[in-house]
């Protein structure tokens, strides 16, 4: 939501972070997918699919 507010051009990053109660580090965080995370996600998806049947 903070990034959306900044992207609209109505508020600065600092004001958005204060308004939403987050740090600027949190605002700038970009998750990185690792091969291990993708493998775990695949296992979980298959497990939930198998449990439905």
UniProtKB/TrEMBL annotation:
Domain of life of the native organism: Bacteria
Identification of the protein by name: Transposase
């Amino acid at each position: 939501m903070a990034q959306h507010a900044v992207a609209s051009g109505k508020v600065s990053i600092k004001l958005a972070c204060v308004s939403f109660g987050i740090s600027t580090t949190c605002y700038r965080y970009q998750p990185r997918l690792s091969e291990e995370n993708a493998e775990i996600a695949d296992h979980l998806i298959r497990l939930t699919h198998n449990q439905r049947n």
